[in-house]
Amino acid sequence: MAKIFGLLTTAASIFIALLSISLFNFKVHSLTILFIIPAGSLALGGLAAFGYYHGVMKMGKKLVKTNYLFGVILALITMVGIEYGEYMITYVSADNVVNHRLQGEHISNYSLNDSNEPLTFYNYYSNKLDNSSVSISSRSNVNGGLTFESGRTMSTFNLVVQGLGFILGSLFGGSMLSDSKNHCQSCQRAYLKEHELFEIDEVDYDSIMVDLNQSIHDDNVYRFSDRIQQQKQIDNELCENIRYNFKIGQCPKCQEGYLIIRHNKIKDDGTYEEVLEQRKVTYLSRGIVADILKTIGNTEKGSSVHF
Ligand SMILES: [Zn+2]
């Protein structure tokens, strides 16, 4: 199932790139920022592998090396698929204009100048890599010869940067997806379903942690719930550079629960980014989890209370 999702997003990624070439003559996969960051291929590689990773995670599995390897394969299929697709939609119109709108004759009806070899995908592509312009002549000699600036020449360097973009895009995409969630440490069979509690800044952090840790240690359901409720009711203005986001996470498979604390740091643009190494996931007793979920009105069906 995950592989089918993967093939769908791979097809979508190829389709978007070809649509852009056809409509705007713009190659998304060649787009770079500051000449070196392959933003376009990063995004298309990420999109290609997204469906597969999503499918694997939907089944409750943690992403492992073989999953990332398959994600990379999908990204490389996308890269080759786009090049092949571009060849397939390269036509020469009656007035000798090379276009990607299926107008006129397909480029395979032409041959490289001074040869009678058809312009196959291989010939077309290797020529495009070597030259900035391609001279072709009609194999049936109807249109005569013409030269067109490919304008899309990819030197080997660009090709390598682009390939790296596709590969890294698929890898980053997978780690971003899995980093945003928490895999159940108890059964290892699902991702935790998370319920928002509150957000606090550094001023309140130490005092609430002392209280919560003590309640967890004593397995004091009431004290834990009271402290959470108390904090939820405080409508404090957060102004610090660091914010702590508190959530309760419960496993849909084994019903075990955890307190999840994300450490978010402000960036230059004013938005917050999580410091992954600082995330705290603390096991809670079933009693505490059930009580908290009940008080926030999200009691999971099938969860049981043990006092
Ligand atoms: Zn579990």
TrEMBL record:
The chain crosses the membrane at residues 7-26, 32-54, 66-85, 159-177. Keywords: Membrane, Transmembrane, Transmembrane helix. The keyword Transmembrane helix applies. It comes from the Bacteria. This is Uncharacterized protein. It comes from Paenibacillus anaericanus.
